[in-house]
Amino acid sequence: MTRTDLKGMTLTELEEFFARWGKERYRARQLFRWIYQKHADDFAAMTDLSKELRGILASTCRLSGFPAERFETSADGTEKYLFRLEDGETVESVLIPDDARRTLCISSQVGCPLLCGFCATGASGFRRNMTSAEIVQQACYAAKRLSERGERLSNVVFMGMGEPLMNVPEVSRTIGILLSQFGFGFSGKRVTVSTAGIVPEMLALALAHPVSFAVSINAARDDLRSLLMPVNRKYPLKDVVAAMRRIPLQSGRKVTAEYVLLAGVNDSPEDALSLSRLFRGGRIKVNLIPYNAHEASPYRAPEAEVVGRFRDVLIAGGVQTITRERRGADIRAACGQLRGSPRGKKS
Ligand code: SAH
What we know:
The chain is α/β, with parallel strands linked by helices and 347 residues long. It has 11 helices and 14 strands.
């Protein structure tokens, strides 16, 4: 008999599961707390469940999970984990410490189908979607690891490998667990979904969950954006920006536009001016990401002055702009460098 994996089920799914067995609904909440707040990985530890229930769970169900097979630590404190999934595929996550914040950057697909020219993940192709159990396990692993040193996971960003909005059912279940008060208990402000701009799914997910959104823009003109991001042919800039303006937001919040700066390609003052016109008056802020190098792409990062000038033009155009600090580049953990291939020391 195959055991039912309870990891990755939403609270509602778990309640229905217990209801089918004639068990009380609150059992699901207890189990949720054990799995996602107390980091339990077997049923025997769940001492507020009856011995009988623990016995039934142990013989018919399971809690999937995997430790990091390898990890690397950057000189700046960033940690990169390599996870081997049950079918042998591998993905990476990155933990970024920043003052009091502990942000985990998680993967939602093995590889990526989008083939953006500047990103290492797409270069190795697309293998498959990840399940919610696999996606949430990255957060379970990091949260447990942090708790062992007296720290807490504070933010989760879907900016690792893959396009989360091409795996909406599993990403949506994962978000349910991250936001549930009996699960990780994150506010929507602390969970960010980053997308290359899959327009219909952006709006649908925004209506389903009050999470934050980041959209990879990377060019202010369709011809250039289509060259860098083939997905632009399906969802052109005008539609992506319109969707960014329609995402429901809590007051004072903004949608983030991510813009990878590639020297001589999209980093001129004219590009900055076009970008500021695109976002003027919108509830959109810009996150500039100087290109992080990897073997699979021919691009270069602009000089610091060019980045500064680009930022100044945006700010002068009335657009809130910050430059993302490069983190973890020495261990290939920076934006766009994840490819899921084993490297580094065994954990
Ligand atoms: N598919 C999603 C999430 C993964 S990419 C998306 O497109 O948003 C996360 C961010 O890293 C994106 O904004 C992407 O534009 C950026 N990125 C990709 N490759 C990069 C590179 N080589 N250097 C800097 N940023 C990169």
